[in-house]
């Protein structure tokens, strides 16, 4: 090996490793600092008798109220997002299949309703049919998340170079092999962009399901607005933002791990 | 062997056929070129062979088997397929790309790896350096070679190539064409090769099928048949007004040169040389060394009244033609040199024959009589 290649090793191989490590830890550390500061500094000063938010747990050792809201918020987001991915990705794939292309306008149209109808209206309708609590909340958030995922899945697959598919077909790959070995890997980044968009929107919208009986971080916001406690509103809003950023960060990393090299 | 019998393809919703009652036979080990203007059904014809498109009527046989009776997936895996857009899988390494069909066929990894390296070497691409790279890291010419290697991976007897060198700059294309012809000498595949470029067709084809819009076969024959006897005005027009020159491209100088030209050695005397020329009525004669290497020539006029040895009167030859040169290039060199004659030499510059402008002209006129 020559001296120059050692030199190159130092300049362009070590820093990427460092960057990689930083890429994994910087955002989580920052987010953790924000959360801890909120709990320790801000919430502590909120009077215990009106607001029972104190640290992560209350005096009896049970999760503090705020913690419970956070957990409920996470639960509703995780379940609805998971259901959305499990339904919208297959739907997006389906409408790119020969013979089902005619259904594309229908499926995209339905998914589009989820996006264009105001979220409050969907919540209302959802409550009208499913009552209050977990179920209507999940349904509304699921419905609201469909469009970006369906659309991006279909677009991602459609945008795979026709020549690549043609070559795969000509070499004797079955339709299934083409889907799993060619189309999905090549569409993965676009599909993930759709999922990330949907999930980030979902985290925000999940605040609203408070109004149909599932107390998420929307609850302290609503309560804070009612009693004019700006600090409550700010705390809950920041927590929602932290959750959205953190989740997007994690999905980004998953995408990085799954994404094929070479594209 | 690939055989098409009265094959017609009418696309759904269209009234005019894209391919019309086409019958062709491609013998084993030959390259059959489908050539014609854009939209004449070349691609359609080719894709019917591996059933990417199904014929409306007619029969297609590959190695004696009716393709419509075969499983299309198995059929395609048994046929090499190259497309103009190359279509390498961008998310797979070069090795994975080349190993695609072997993997589909269930070869074990070690065998696939061996085959990949073998093919990369065959294509003049360093396996150790390139096998783990991704397609986008390669030049256009290299990608095209990988496309061809990928099609050959499972050693198919039959290959389909749709404008395989179409998207490449002319210089690289020329090199790839030559490489491929050399390769074909070894591998002897049965190939259907699509192009819209008549020059490529003439260069690459053992047989050429000239198609016209509407999928009509205008002529099917060897390049020299097509150039010397165009079947109709369409073919005449398609091969171009310069078809005589194109034909000259097909013929190599050794096919028309005088293989036993009059020569003298540089160690001979002037007297011997003059006598030699007088007997044969020559104005000049080429002079060679003991190893038959070309030394130059002597003019009869220069030797008049002289004595001694011929090497004192040598004029260096302005032009010599390498064995294997096409008649067209030979002609061009002769015209550029102002001479009517040149020696044909081998790689060691040994004289192997003599070519004259008149001989080229005679060959051209004989062509019209159907000889070659
Ligand atoms: N999938 C298709 N559907 C309908 N018409 C087609 C299709 N593919 C090709 N054609 C038509 O068939 C004719 C022959 O096309 P093609 O075989 O691609 O020609 P070439 O390869 O010689 O340029 C053209 O008129 C083209 O428009
Ligand atoms: Mg074509």
Give your account of this protein's structure.
- The complex is a heterodimer of chains A (263) and B (372).
- With 263 residues, chain A is mainly alpha-helical.
- Chain A has a single domain (70-258), classed as MetI-like fold (Orthogonal Bundle), CATH 1.10.3720.
- Helix content of chain A is 76%, strand content 0%.
- Chain A contains nine helices and no strands.
- In chain A, helix 1 (3-45) packs antiparallel against helix 9 and helix 8 (218-226) packs antiparallel against helix 9 (230-258).
- Chain B has 372 residues and is α/β, with parallel strands linked by helices.
- Chain B has two domains: 2-251, P-loop containing nucleotide triphosphate hydrolases (Rossmann fold, 3-Layer(aba) Sandwich); 254-371, CBS-domain (Roll).
- In chain B, 37% of the residues lie in helices and 23% in strands.
- Chain B has 16 helices and 16 strands.
- In chain B, the strands form four sheets. Chain B has a six-stranded mixed sheet with strand order 6-7-8-3-9-10, sandwiched between helices. A four-stranded antiparallel sheet of chain B has the order 2-1-4-5, covered by helices on one side. A three-stranded mixed sheet of chain B has the order 11-12-13.
- The longest helix of chain B is centred in the middle third of the chain and has 18 residues, at 170-187.
- The interface between A and B is medium-sized, with 22 and 29 residues.
What hetero molecules are bound to the protein chains? adenosine-5'-diphosphate, magnesium ion
**Would you give the CATH topology of the largest domain in chain B?**
Rossmann fold
| Structural class by SSE content of chain B | alpha/beta
State the total count of DSSP E strands of chain A: 0
In what order do the strands lie side by side in the largest sheet of chain B?
Answer: 6-7-8-3-9-10
Q: What fraction strand of chain B?
A: 15-25%
- Which chains share the greatest interface? A-B, 22 and 29 residues
Taking all Cα atoms into account, the compactness measure Rg of chain B is 26 Å
| Beta-strand content of chain A | under 5%
What's the assembly state of these chains?
heterodimer
> What are the low-pLDDT stretches of chain B, counting only 5+ consecutive residues below 50?
none
Shape of chain A: flat
Helix content of chain B: 25-40%
Number of helices of chain B: 16
Annotated CATH homologous superfamily of the largest domain in chain B = P-loop containing nucleotide triphosphate hydrolases
pLDDT averaged over residues of chain A: 85
SSE class of chain A: mainly alpha
CATH architecture of chain A: Orthogonal Bundle
